[in-house]
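Structure first, sequence second, as always.
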């Protein structure tokens, strides 16, 4: 009998893990149980759905190849019986497992504001807590015909949602208890400049203001003032979904506690993504979820490597504002040299931290030209140029790694949708010859948009390679190119695993 892997949660982490297990160990009996009724989708793209720039279906992740994974949607797991190695669903269905994976993600945190919730804990009338595609539909149904909307929470998600709605003509008030916008990532100078930039786009950030009560059409603040709103959207943080693990007697702190191989205290049960606490941290970001899926696929297929953390770059997906938080961002890094530039009149701010010539953190606001170069230096861990100011002004060239031809095939170009250079090459070879077609085929560029420039460069490079295949073949001698990575999202999305011109694909 083949090994039975049951994954609870059909979010990006669970979906990606199933995809990798099927690619690396075909024949594994994989079942995913997902409480949501939709196929798996990429939550990162929801702000684009709210802005009306993306259809809900465009957020769907690649379908698993026919017959490879059993996906049960609209099914909530109610309990885990560790002794019998079984899970039980709300409908009373019992599923046995050899390996169980918790990929249950997180739920919205509803802050203690009077009137915000009904007695059963659900959001009250006129309130939507935003986490799912279904929540996006609720927002759509409940948006007032005209007037203003309020958002509770001025972190990354709250600001993205606010800007998405201001794009559609609403005036949006963001009520934020923290001292300034995005205070978890930014210091006061950058936070205030960000609020000013958003202010010019019909998003008013009310920072340092605690909400105390919601009355159905008005949010009262602790200082006695109030904000009128036809709809209140709550984006005040998330709480990892740990109840199943806790009830099953597994160790839970902020998340389900796992070791660097993503194992809980029960060797048959693993956890990853937003529900997991690794190295004492819960991430709440998509890039660690993708990477942990890769690590866990290795663990479950007999090629274990430890999870050592993820290098993250967060870009605010707010049209008209360019903000990137790279690595440590504004956090102090012991021993690092720091350069800070600020030009309030032009809404520009840069802070760069360099340790032993390597970029370890940066915040770049209103400096789109420098984002690509600094991100690339951070990713590649190449030495930063000595002229830090030029780098921050976007004038320094980051070096040879900018040539798409020299990038390894598995380089992730689009972090929002986990699209590699090879995924783009595969899509191109299958007929997606323009940037817009590459975007449609792979979803690259449809999230924060930060990868637009590298996608453009890769498209140009692919065209040139395709037009001169002989010259390239002669240059590369008789080197053999590797096969397509079947597990990559774009290649599996089409279900066709044969690549017609493999020389465009790199290791
Ligand atoms: C609007 C929005 C925008 C975001 N933007 C970004 C961004 O720009 N960059 C970034 O890095 N991150 C972003 N995030 C966070 C990112 O989406 C998450 O880090 C990511 O979704 C985590 O994936 P996951 O699979 O671990 O969890 P989830 O996506 O939460 O999926 C978990 C799934 O498990 C299901 N589930 C839970 N319990 C059960 C059960 N008992 N039985 C069955 N199913 C269950 C849930 O219904 C859910 O479908 C955003 C999140 C939101 C909501």
């Amino acid at each position: 009998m083949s090994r039975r892997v049951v994954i609870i949660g059909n979010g990006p982490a669970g979906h990606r893990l199933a995809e990798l297990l099927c690619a690396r160990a075909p024949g594994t009996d994989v079942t995913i149980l997902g409480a949501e009724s939709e196929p798996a989708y990429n939550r990162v793209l929801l702000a684009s759905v709210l802005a009306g720039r993306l259809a809900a279906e465009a957020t769907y992740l690649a379908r698993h190849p026919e017959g490879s994974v059993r996906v049960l949607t609209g099914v909530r797991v109610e309990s885990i019986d560790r002794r019998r190695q079984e899970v039980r669903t709300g409908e009373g269905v019992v599923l046995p497992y050899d390996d169980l994976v918790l990929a249950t993600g997180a739920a919205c945190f509803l802050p203690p504001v009077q009137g915000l919730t009904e007695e059963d804990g659900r959001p009250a009338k006129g309130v939507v807590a935003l986490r799912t595609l279904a929540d996006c539909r609720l927002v759509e149904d409940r948006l007032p015909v005209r007037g203003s909307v309020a958002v509770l929470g001025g972190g990354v998600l709250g600001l993205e949602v606010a800007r998405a709605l201001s794009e559609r003509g609403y005036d949006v008030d963001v009520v934020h208890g923290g001292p300034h916008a995005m205070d978890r990532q930014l210091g006061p100078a950058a936070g205030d400049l960000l609020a000013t930039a958003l202010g010019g786009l019909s998003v008013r950030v009310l920072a340092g203001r605690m909400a105390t009560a919601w009355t159905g059409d008005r949010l009262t603040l602790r200082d006695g003032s109030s904000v009128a709103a036809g709809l209140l959207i709550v984006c005040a943080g998330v709480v990892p979904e740990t109840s199943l693990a806790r009830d099953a007697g597994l160790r839970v702190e902020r998340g389900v506690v796992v070791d660097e191989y993503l194992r809980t205290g029960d060797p048959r049960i693993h956890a990853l993504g937003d529900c997991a606490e690794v190295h004492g941290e819960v991430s709440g970001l998509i890039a660690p979820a993708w990477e942990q899926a890769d690590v866990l696929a290795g663990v479950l297929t007999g090629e274990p490597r430890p999870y050592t953390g993820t290098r993250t770059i967060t870009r605010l997906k707010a049209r008209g504002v360019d903000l990137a938080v790279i690595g440590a961002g504004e956090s102090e890094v012991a021993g690092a040299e720091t350069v800070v530039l600020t030009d309030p009149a032009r809404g520009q701010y840069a802070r760069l931290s360099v340790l032993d010539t390597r970029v370890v953190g940066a915040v770049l606001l209103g400096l789109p030209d420098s984002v690509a170069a600094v991100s690339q230096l951070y990713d590649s861990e190449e030495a930063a140029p000595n002229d830090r100011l030029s780098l921050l002004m976007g004038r320094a060239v980051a070096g040879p790694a900018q040539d798409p031809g020299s990038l390894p095939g598995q380089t992730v170009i689009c972090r929002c949708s986990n699209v590699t250079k090879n995924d783009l090459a595969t899509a191109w070879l299958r007929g997606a010859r323009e940037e817009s077609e590459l975007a449609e085929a792979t979803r690259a560029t449809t999230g924060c948009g930060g990868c637009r420039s590298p996608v453009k460069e890769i498209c140009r490079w692919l065209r040139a390679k395709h037009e001169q295949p002989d010259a390239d073949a002669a240059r590369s001698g008789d080197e053999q190119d590797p096969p397509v990575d079947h597990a990559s999202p774009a290649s599996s999305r089409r279900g066709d695993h044969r690549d017609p011109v493999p020389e465009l694909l790199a290791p």
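Margin note: Residues 8-14, 33-36, 43-44, 46-47, 76-77, 103-106, 130-131, 157, 241, 244, 273-274, 284-287, 289, 317 surround flavin-adenine dinucleotide (CB under 6 Å).
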